[in-house]
Design goal:
19% strand; IS1380 family transposase; 3-stranded antiparallel beta sheet; 8-stranded mixed beta sheet; elongated; 41% helix; Transpos_IS1380; 15 helices; 16 strands; alpha+beta; RNaseH-like_sf
């Protein structure tokens, strides 16, 4: 027997609160996500790409519906599987998932147990199919592969957790790629915490190059990365697929000598002013197969004597100035925001499972949730709102109180008459319904 909790308020003794509101939901705005996913044909894409081996003799919730429930919970801001126990009878969740009740936490836990290595690849294929469809709607022909690695904390003796010297803590070390132009999450791979930044980057990138050169041709691809990706494996791969790259180089003695050779000082030198000098030259390290262009940015602060040098390796021709190359690289800073959004907004770095494979699957579900919201934001939001973070989107559009009323002929979802952002809600809904794939 469940005892309903009631609490009186101290500021007004006549006011009592309790969770007895009946057929109410605080997540009524998720119908926008449902409408968008139906427009995207997400269910059909999922059935086409995801085949989870299932030896259950009897079940109420199939694997695709469990995956969708996890995605909706993630988008709504419920980071733990146990949230499902309280959401089981939520009218909006039941409606968007077309169920009489949601799967419980234990059902979701068993779902993770059924995930295989092949399913991880299938989830990536599903993500790729969604991106391809959205790219056609955007009608864009250029791409930027922004490469980076990040950190996911682990707790206890989780499988393949290890110490990472850069982050000075235990955990995993995922490898990620975003489209720097749209913010789309192109790919992610969970790795042990001890691996170096660029470990496995060739095998990680090659399928992306193959796909965007053959299946979905693009006019130009640019690869950007920090000094962790300054490896011949990346240069050779980009050159093999006729793609540009701008990658930060770590300083060394030979590069420092080259940079200093471009500094000229005379008797009337303006030491009191800050100075920035851009230059470029061709350079070949021992591990490189050929000489490559290196752009140099030399910075001296006002009233200082020494220059600080930065280096970028690129295959842009000398028609593209060194200053422009640095400007192109600096725009990579937006990727840090993408990673923060994936982590803080979609729980990309949560590692709730003891097994490595299950944590990899959780990461992929977060990736799908991130992209669905990013697709909807970039395609359907109004000018001025396309850069809203998911925390703001939840507050304005998803976390809306509503009551679902059933009549003999229809369902009526009633929002509050005082929903502050109702104009934006209906504008976004209208844009979703106008989509033509």
């Amino acid at each position: 027997m469940i005892t309903l909790q009631e609490k009186k308020m101290q500021f007004n003794s006549k006011l009592t609160i309790s969770n007895t509101g009946g057929n109410l939901s605080t997540d009524s705005g998720l119908i926008l996500v449902k409408e968008f996913m139906e427009s995207l044909n997400f269910s059909e894409l999922s059935r086409r790409f995801l085949k989870i081996e299932d030896d259950r003799l009897y079940h109420i919730h199939n694997n695709l519906s469990l995956m969708k429930q996890l995605i909706y919970q993630n988008i709504a801001g419920y980071s733990t599987d146990s949230s499902a126990n309280l959401l089981q009878q939520d009218p909006i969740f039941k409606e968007i998932l077309d169920k009489s009740r949601l799967a419980s936490q234990s059902s979701l836990s068993r779902f993770w147990d059924r995930i295989s290595e092949e399913n991880i690849s299938q989830l990536q294929d599903l993500n790729q199919a969604m991106i391809d469809k959205v790219r056609l709607a955007r009608n864009v022909t250029e791409m930027i592969f922004d490469l980076d690695s990040t950190h996911s904390d682990t707790y206890g003796k989780q499988e393949r957790t290890d110490y990472n010297a850069h982050y000075q803590t235990n955990g995993y070390h995922p490898l990620v790629a975003f489209d720097g132009l749209t913010g789309d999450f192109l790919k992610a791979e969970l790795r042990s915490g001890s691996v170096y930044t660029s470990t496995g980057v060739g095998a990680f990138m090659k399928p992306l190059f193959e796909h965007y050169n053959q299946v979905v041709p693009v006019s130009n691809i640019l690869v950007r990365g920090d000094s962790g990706f300054a490896t011949p494996e990346v240069y050779d791969l980009c050159e093999a697929y006729d793609s540009f790259f701008v990658i930060l180089l770590k300083a060394n003695r030979n590069l420092s000598k080259l940079a200093e050779s471009f500094i000229q000082i005379d008797d009337n030198y303006p030491w009191h002013k800050k100075e920035i000098i851009y230059s470029s030259t061709f350079y070949q390290a021992k591990s490189w197969s050929q000489k490559r262009r290196v752009c140099i940015k030399s910075t001296r602060e006002a009233d200082e004597l020494l220059f600080r040098h930065e280096y970028i390796i690129t295959n842009y021709s000398e028609n593209t100035s060194a200053e422009t190359v640095f400007q192109i690289y600096c725009k990579r800073g937006t990727m840090e925001n993408f990673i923060k959004e994936a982590k803080n907004g979609f729980y990309f770095d949560k590692t709730d499972s003891p097994l490595f494979l299950e944590n990899h699957a959780r990461m992929m579900i977060s990736l799908l949730a991130y992209n669905i919201v990013n697709f909807m934001r970039t395609l359907c939001f109004t000018p001025g709102t396309t850069h809203m973070q998911v925390s703001t989107i939840r507050l304005k559009l998803f976390k809306v109180a509503g009551k679902l009323v059933r009549t003999g002929r229809r369902l009526l979802l009633k929002f509050s008459s005082h929903h502050v952002h109702q104009d934006l809600f209906y504008q976004v809904l209208g844009r979703i319904q106008q989509l033509s794939w």
